[in-house]
Amino acid sequence: MNKSQLSVKHLLGIKEITEKDIYLIFETAKEFKQIINRPIKKVPTLRDTTIANLFFENSTRTKLSFELAEKRLSADVINFSAASSSVKKGETLLDTVNNILAMKVDMVVMRHPSPGAHYFLSKNIDASIVNAGDGTHEHPTQALLDNFSIYNHFNGKIKDKKIVIMGDIMHSRVAMSNIFALKKLGVEVKVSGPSTLIPKYIKTRGVDVELDIEKALEWCDVANILRIQLERQDIKYFPSLREYSQYFGVSRELLDKMKSKKVIMHPGPINRGVEIESQVADSDNSIILEQVENGVAVRMAVLFLLANRRKK
C-alpha cells in the first residue's frame, strides 16, 4: 500500500487539498478496487480504528458506501441518525460530537445541512473529520469518486479532457466540489442548464456556461448530469418538470445526434425521465454503476490515508 501521506488531517473540502493529494487518493483507490473485487473483500488495515457516521440529513448511497468502506477496512463502526438522537431535544452539534468522542472514536464522517459545520468541528475536536456533504457547499468524496471514474475510464489520462456538468448547479454541492477537483487536475469545465439554476459567480471559478444542451454535449468528452434539487428550492426556477425534461433532459435521441461517443455520469439519485432517460442511464455510454463501485474504493482510500496520517 502507498506509503505517501495526505497534506491534510481532515477531508473538509476539495478546496483544502492539493493535486498531489488527489492523485494519491486515486492511486490508493486503485489498490482498494482490486481488493473489493477479490473473493475475500476485507483487509485488517483499520482494525484498531473506531469511526462514527453522523448523518444530520437523509442519505442512502453515501451512508451505505461509507459504512461498507469502513467494514471492508475492518474498522469498528458507530452509526448516528439525527432523527432519533438528542439533537431533537436541543443538544448542540459540539455536545453531540463530544459525547460520541468520549466513547473513544478516532474518525468522524459527517453530513450536515449547514455549510461550514465540518470546519467548526475541526477547530474544536481532535478526531479526523470527513465531510460527507454540508448544505450546498461541498461533497468532496463524491467529487473524488466522479473524477476517479473519469481517470479510470481514460486510463489515467484526465488532463485536458472536456467535462460538462449539467442541471441544477446552483443548489448542488456535488457540482462545486467537482469543479474544484477538475480545475486542479487541468480539465476544461463547462456548466449547462436553465440560466435560473446557474449561479452568477460561476465564471469566477474558471468555468464557462453553455445554455444550449446540444452544443454542450457536442463539446464535451464527459457529461456529468445532476438532478433537480427540489428539496432545496424555495421558489420555482422553471415552469414544470415536463418542460425541464424537454429542453434540458438528456435523451437517447439527443445522444444519437453527437458526432463522437459521450461518457455519461450521474451522482444519483436519478430522476428517470426528467434529467436523463432510462435508455441513456442504462446504455453503454453510461458509467453510473462504475461510479457506485468506485465510491467504495475511493472512500476506503480516504479513510485509510487519514488514519495513516493520524499515526505519524
Protein described:
The structure is a single chain. The relative contact order is 0.16. The protein is built from eleven helices and nine strands. The protein has a five-stranded parallel sheet, sandwiched between helices. Strands 2-1-3-4 form a four-stranded parallel sheet. The chain has two domains: 14-138 and 292-311, 3-Layer(aba) Sandwich (Rossmann fold), CATH 3.40.50; 140-287, Rossmann fold (3-Layer(aba) Sandwich). α2 crosses α11 (288-311) and α5 (140-153) packs across α6 (173-184). With 312 residues, it is α/β, with parallel strands linked by helices. It starts with 18 loop residues before the first helix and ends with a helix.
Please give the structural blueprint.
Layout (H helix, E strand, L loop, with lengths): L18 H18 L13 E6 L5 H12 L3 E6 L11 H9 L5 E6 L4 H6 L5 E7 L5 H14 L8 E5 L6 H12 L3 E5 L15 E2 L3 H7 L2 E4 L15 H8 L3 H5 L6 E3 L12 H4 L6 H24 L1
Helix segment count? 11
Order of neighbouring strands in the sheet with most strands:
7-6-5-8-9
Outline the biggest β-sheet.
5 strands, parallel
Strand content: 5-15%
Give the SSE order as H and E letters.
HEHEHEHEHEHEEHEHHEHH
Query: End-to-end span in angstroms?
Result: 16 Å
User: Average pLDDT, to the nearest integer?
Assistant: 91
Q: Would you count the extended β strands for me?
A: 9
CATH fold title of the largest domain: Rossmann fold
Total number of distinct structural domains: 2
The rough form would be described as globular
Q: Over all CA atoms, what is the radius of gyration?
A: 19 Å
